[in-house]
Amino acid sequence: xxxxxxxxxxxxxxxxxxxxxxxxxxxxxxxxxxxxxxxxxxxxxxxxxxxxxxxxxxxxxxxxxxxxxxxxxxxxxxxxxxxxx
Length: 85
Hints:
Number of strands: 0
Largest sheet: none
Oligomer: single chain
Distance between the termini: 44 Å
């Protein structure tokens, strides 16, 4: 976790505040952090469990950064904008 924080500070700059303005963004970051913690906890019990948690963290970060697939976009559109009702 500390290595990820150092990377983010170096990549984005440590003098700018890291303000998260939307609940959705905050939730995605919390989901990613939780998955990373769980991957560390389960790594000794099986690599496949850790890999699944890492995949989940990567998906949350990908969604946050705008790297999502078409199905994810359609899901948000139909859920939040009530298209077709």
